[in-house]
Design a protein that fits this description.
TIM Barrel; single chain; globular; binds ligand 2KA; 24% strand; binds magnesium ion; metal-binding; 213 residues; 7 helices; S-adenosyl-L-methionine; binds iron/sulfur cluster; iron; binds S-adenosylmethionine; alpha/beta; 4Fe-4S
């Protein structure tokens, strides 16, 4: 079955059940909450197709177990941290109201990592938008973004980043994150860019340096 057919089967349940590739209690390695303990829930399924995606195993829905939103939230509640980060895959391919409602019942703060390629759903304490050239982000996500995180693959990405910086709300945090395999090449450019444009910050994927999930 194609991802579309697998997706439609899940969508019949209106977000009460979701496919989970993995979940883990770790340290947020990126962006504004970098260094904070957080419970990550990685939903399966993405059709954005970034060629440099560091979790391509998350693209397919098939083969990943499906759980109720209560089971998903309950599993995380065993840990002392009270930040839940929903990532993927592209989490917004699913309606996420029921998941965020369940997480709130367990006193979680709800954070999302998204490309914004689908309309916003769910009740979020923090929205991190990492827009992609391969599928443009929805206005509903852009206007509610708390943190804009641009992946820098080459020097043309700085102008591209500024297009989004103009669209987010004024208090939105701005981050430039090197594409992992291009780090040696682009990090010096990012450093110079941030020194000249101090409204931007650098985000490195510190979990990869610490060898943690
Ligand atoms: C795997 S994605 C999942 C969430 C969502 N699909 C998205 O792209 O925002 C999680 C974060 O990792 C970033 N990311 C993915 N591959 C990367 C890479 N090779 N280097 C740096 N960041 C990467 C994404 O841009 C996103 O901010
Ligand atoms: N530690 C850690 N921090 C992260 N921040 C965003 C991640 C993601 O894949 O969404 C991620 C991840 O995979 N691990
Ligand atoms: S949108 Fe996110 S999960 Fe999907 S391919 Fe791009 S980086 Fe990977
Ligand atoms: Mg990751």
């Amino acid at each position: 079955m194609s991802i579309k057919q697998d997706l439609n089967k899940i969508l019949e349940h209106s977000g009460s059940i979701l496919p989970v590739m993995e979940s883990f209690y770790t340290i947020q390695g990126e962006g504004f909450f970098q260094g904070h303990a957080a419970y990550f829930i990685r939903l399966a399924g993405c059709d954005v197709g970034c060629h440099w995606c560091d979790v391509k195993e998350s693209w397919e829905i098939k083969g990943h177990p499906v759980y109720s939103v209560e089971e998903i939230a309950q599993a995380g509640s065993a840990h002392p941290g009270r930040v839940a980060v929903i990532t993927g895959g592209e989490p917004l391919i699913y309606p996420l109201e029921q998941l965020t409602e369940s997480l709130k019942k367990f006193q979680f703060r709800t954070h999302i990592e998204t490309s914004g390629a689908y309309p916003l759903s769910g009740n979020w304490d923090w929205i991190c938008l990492s827009p992609k050239k391969f599928k443009a982000p929805h206005q509903s996500v852009i206007e509610n973004t708390d943190e804009l995180k641009i992946i820098v693959f080459n020097k043309s990405d700085f102008d591209w980043a500024e297009q989004f910086a103009r669209q987010v709300k004024p208090e939105c945090k701005l981050y430039l994150q090197p594409e992992w395999s291009k780090q040696n090449e682009v990090l010096p450019l990012i450093i110079e860019y941030v020194k000249s444009n101090p409204q931007w910050n650098i985000s490195l994927q510190i979990h990869k340096f610490m060898n943690i999930p």
